[in-house]
Design brief:
Elements lengths: L11 E6 L2 H14 L1 H6 L3 E5 L8 H13 L4 E10 L7 E6 L2 H10 L16 E5 L7 H8 L6 E5 L1 E8 L2 E9 L1
Antiparallel strand pairs: 1-2, 1-7, 3-4, 3-6, 4-5, 7-8
C-alpha cells in the first residue's frame, strides 16, 4: 500500500542524494520501516523545498546556481536516528558538523544565477520514516537504534526531482 501524498503532482524539490554506504544503509532501513517513502523518493537531505520551476535553458541556470553553492566539497557527520517532536513522529538521521552545508545553502539562496526564493533555515537531517503517527513507536524507536552511523557523508550528488505519479523522478541530476 502506498501512503497518500500531500504533495501536488508536478511538485519539485532540490535534494542532496545520500549515496555510498550511508545511502545504502539508510535506504535498506527505509525499505523495511517505511517502504512507501523508500519507493517514492531516494534517501536525501532537502536543499530547497520550493525551488524555481525551470525547464529547458532554465535547467542550466539552476545547475549554475547549484555549482556556485557547492564550489567546495561538503561533508557532514551522520549520527543517530532521532524523532522530531511533530504530529507525524518523523524519524531522521541527525546531521552535525554542517558548517560547509550551511555555507552551501547560503550560496544556493544568494541569487547569483537564479532566485531560489527566501532562505528559511531548517535543521539538516535525512528522513528515515516520514509519518510514524499511528504506528508502533516503541518498535520504531528500538529499530532506530540499529541505524546509528557515527560516519561522514560527502555530498556528491544533487538532484532536481519532480513528483510524477507516486514517485519523485529526476528532472536533472548533477555530480558536485
Amino acid at each position: 500500500m502506498t501512503e497518500p501524498s500531500s504533495s501536488a503532482q508536478g511538485r519539485r524539490v532540490l535534494v542532496a542524494v545520500v549515496t555510498g554506504t550511508v545511502g545504502e544503509r539508510v535506504q535498506a532501513w527505509r525499505a523495511e520501516h517505511d517502504p512507501g517513502q523508500a519507493r517514492r523518493i531516494p534517501p536525501h537531505s532537502t536543499l530547497a523545498y520550493w525551488p524555481p520551476m525551470v525547464d529547458g535553458d532554465g535547467i542550466g541556470t539552476l545547475e549554475a546556481q547549484v555549482r556556485h553553492a557547492f564550489d567546495l566539497p561538503v561533508s557532514v557527520h551522520c549520527g543517530a536516528v532521532h524523532e522530531f517532536a511533530n504530529a507525524e513522529h518523523t524519524f531522521y538521521v541527525s546531521l552535525t558538523a554542517t558548517e560547509g552545508l550551511d555555507r552551501a545553502r547560503t550560496r544556493l539562496f544568494d541569487g547569483t544565477h537564479v532566485s531560489m526564493g527566501t532562505l528559511t533555515p531548517w535543521p539538516w537531517h535525512i528522513t528515515c520514516v516520514r509519518r510514524a503517527h499511528g504506528r508502533d513507536l516503541t518498535a520504531l524507536r528500538n529499530a532506530a537504534t540499529t541505524l546509528d552511523f557515527n560516519d561522514a557523508w560527502t555530498i556528491d550528488t544533487v538532484a532536481y526531482l519532480e513528483l510524477r505519479g507516486d514517485r519523485y523522478e529526476p528532472v536533472a541530476q548533477w555530480k558536485v
